[in-house]
Amino acid sequence: xxxxxxxxxxxxxxxxxxxxxxxxxxxxxxxxxxxxxxxxxxxxxxxxxxxxxxxxxxxxxxxxxxxxxxxxxxxxxxxxxxxxxxxxxxxxxxxxxxxxxxxxxxxxxxxxxxxxxxxxxxxxxxxxxxxxxxxxxxxxxxxxxxxxxxxxxxxxxxxxxxxxxxxxxxxxxxxxxxxxxxxxxxxxxxxxxxxxxxxxx
Length: 201
Description:
By secondary structure, this protein is α+β, with helices and mostly antiparallel strands. The chain is built from 7 helices and 5 strands; from the N terminus they run H-H-H-H-H-H-E-E-E-E-E-H.
């Protein structure tokens, strides 16, 4: 499996997992477990994407809002930029967080447009302090089961996803390797310019 294919598969499976899983009735954000958060978050996305009365802008707005609520972009940004984070200014850090969110939103929307029927099972969870993992299985076409490991962090706003992995391939590692190579040669300004150009294209 290539890195590009793995990234697309993670995004597709991740979006399927957090959009198709059914939330437990009455589950509240304050006391919900990581698995319940996975079931609850983004549950309206699929309905909106399949609603013929919704235009593309409305669908993207809903997807963007749910992604913003589900992911810990502060933690992800620092992990992705690694040693380059300390060299970034406050404005560059804020810009990177924003562009990372839009990048994930754009990739996810592209994957969701190509989606087919999936059946999602939310499996077990393991909580260690403020970190947790949740296992979900996405059954795609032709009976292919895709096991996905979600990593979450407890924040003041509840549990947030900061990584997802499939067969040892991590979404964070994918972004870290890609942007680290650019940062090493062009600095943070080069990373931001590259992200903006990619989104514009």
